[in-house]
Each structure stands twice: as structure tokens, then as C-alpha cells.
Predict the 3D structure of the following.
Amino acid sequence: MAKPKRETHFTCMDCRESIALPDYLATGGAGYAIDVATGGRVCYPCCGKNDERNMRETGKGVLYLVARDGKYVLTNWPATLTIPVDGMSTSSHNIARTRTDVWFTFDGAQWHGTQYGDMSQICRVQRNKRERYVGHLAPAKLSVTGRFPTPPEIQNLKRD
Ligand SMILES: [Zn+2]
């Protein structure tokens, strides 16, 4: 019986491109995401586009809050979508101990996200319905001592 040939490419179910699979041992990555609904494989650039479209359509998303090049950004898995954070503030939370709020601009609208605790970078984001920025926002700066900057850097946040 002939040995099954090792797969070298996969077809993205979204863009239909044939994409070379990475050397798993070298990179430790599969090179694609699995679509939960269909089990089909999706390339990384399409993951970013899909996440972006989902956010646009639903006004909601789940991203990761990470520090990159001295600034905080929101990113998806596998980091093919990156959104700079305009401002953030950390406060104490009775269960998770800390709660971090972030504000950012996406698709021409203001969004808000919340992240809980020190163990997780998961940030649930939502498009603002009533809140909007008035005035200037200080950019989120990377704290030298902790994961998140203190004191709060959000200023002049007002409701309509
Ligand atoms: Zn694709």
C-alpha cells in the first residue's frame, strides 16, 4: 500500500486560495484556523477579515489586549487584525481583582472594551451607542511597573 502523500497545501474556504502549509515542527503553528460551523480551513488573512466583518455587522467582538512596541493594541488570533487603543483605564474589580477599560476607533465609530484580571488578555469589545469622545484623549502608554498604566489616562469622556 502506498504511503499517503504528506499534505503541502490547503485551500482556504473563504478566499479559495491554495496556501502552503508551514513546517509544523519549525513554526509550531498549523497555518490555518478551523471554521467551527463547517470544519473548513481558513487562512490567517481571512481570519482577520472575518473578525473585522463580524465586528462591523454585530457591533461586538472578542479580541486580545496586548502590548506591542510600547503601546497597547487590540488584536485577534492569529494577529491578522490589529487596532490601536486610544485610551485605557484600570480599576479594581471585586472578583477578578482588576478591570481594564479600553476605548478605540474602528470603522469610523468609537468602541469600548473590557478585560478582567491579570491572567487573561481576552477583551470583549462593543461599539458605543451613546458615548463618544469630546476633546483630546491621551494615548495609552506602556507602564514600566505593571501590565497596565495607572492612573487612568482617559479624560474628557462625556455622554451625549
Ligand atoms: Zn483565505
